[in-house]
Write a structure and sequence with these properties.
single chain; about 350 residues; alpha/beta; Quinone Oxidoreductase, Chain A, domain 1; 2 domains; seven-stranded mixed sheet; six-stranded parallel sheet; 11 helices; about 25% strand
Length: about 350
């Protein structure tokens, strides 16, 4: 099969289209013909050599996939060749204390296809998938849309519904409105009945965020965010802040919270090192949560929203597999709204 292989950590020149052996499904697994693979910032971090990922080149990136089942491994029931599905990207042992508690991300064996654990990913024509991780696609859903949903949708759900405990009537500030995870978060927060304030320094992205359901849009630099949120909320501030940008905005995002408010963060696209005034945290009894995807039950809840039409994948640009380098450049530019997608 054809696959884009990461030959060594570093720049995009280390991504190379190669012919590699077809994977073979084992017990409980299926072989999928990958039709679409959405990119994540995780791909850029792994390519650069993210510490602790257990990835060793040569490696195939890609955590978000959709496609058609080609063949079934031993013991697989309920699926047939030709069925269309997306893929839950997480992998966990299912039996340790963390897994039994629903904390898949804390499992000692936790992995994400194409990323953590060194698991091969979906920058390829074919992919082996555990059958229990297949997410059946409705006929109305395109492969590109389906591939754009799992990692971002699951992460957003875990951040808002599970950790952030978002409820109807609460106010949520979503930082960086154009990112794939924010696009999912806007829709999920609205499905939970929240008021959504989307932020961006790009006015065009904010217009698209409002079209997705955001109630308010803030076209503000980071240092003006707290003042702007105070104005929009009549001084009440936000119940929860959804953050993934990191250094450029972290402290100002924190200042958007009401006393006893919650911030949930899943990324650091502008830098990992942040300045934090702990006096502000303890005096206002703020809670800060880190998030890393979610578990299979949460993934199924997200997929139910997608099947019901309450969560839609938003595709920014599509590239053939051979143009993976250009797709990485597009994602790195931070100019996208929604997902950058490869077509193997």
């Amino acid at each position: 099969m054809k696959a884009v292989v990461l030959k060594a950590f570093g720049g995009i020149e280390n991504l190379e289209l190669q012919t590699v052996p077809d994977p073979v499904p084992g017990p409980g697994e299926v072989l999928m013909r990958v039709r679409a693979c959405a990119l994540n910032h995780l791909d850029l971090w792994i390519r650069a050599g993210l510490p602790g990922s257990k990835v060793k080149p040569p490696h195939i990136l890609g955590s978000d996939a959709s496609g058609e089942i080609l063949s079934l491994g031993p013991g697989v029931d309920g699926f047939a060749p030709g069925a269309r599905a997306a893929v839950h990207p997480g992998r966990a042992c299912g039996s340790c204390a963390a897994c039994r508690d629903g904390r898949d991300g804390d499992c000692p064996e936790y992995g994400i296809i194409g990323a953590y654990g060194g698991l091969p990913g979906a920058y390829a024509e074919k992919l082996v998938v555990p059958a229990k991780h297949l997410l059946p696609m409705p006929d109305t859903m395109s492969f590109e849309e389906a591939a754009s949903l799992p990692l971002a949708g699951l992460t957003a759900w875990h951040m808002l519904a599970t950790l952030g405990e978002v409820k109807a009537g609460q106010t949520i500030v979503i930082i960086g409105a154009g990112a794939g995870v924010s696009v999912a978060a806007i829709q999920i927060a609205k499905s939970l009945g929240a008021r959504v304030i989307a932020t961006s320094t790009d006015a065009a992205k904010l217009e698209r965020a409002k079209a997705l359901g955001a109630d308010d849009a803030l076209h503000s630099p980071p240092d003006e965010l707290p003042r702007s949120v105070r104005r929009l909320t009549g001084g009440a501030m936000a119940d929860c802040v959804f953050e993934h940008v990191g250094a450029a905005v972290f402290m100002n995002a924190l200042k958007c919270l009401r006393p006893s408010g919650r911030m949930v963060t899943c990324g650091a696209t502008s830098g990992f090192q942040v300045e934090l005034d702990l006096r502000y945290v303890f005096s206002r009894q703020l809670r800060i949560y880190g998030a890393k995807m979610g578990n299979l039950d949460e993934m199924r809840a997200v997929w139910s929203l997608a099947r019901e039409g309450k969560l839609k994948g938003v595709v920014d640009r599509v590239y053939p597999l051979a143009e993976a380098r250009a797709a990485h450049e597009r994602l790195k530019s931070r100019g996208q709204f929604g997902k950058v997608v490869l077509l193997p």
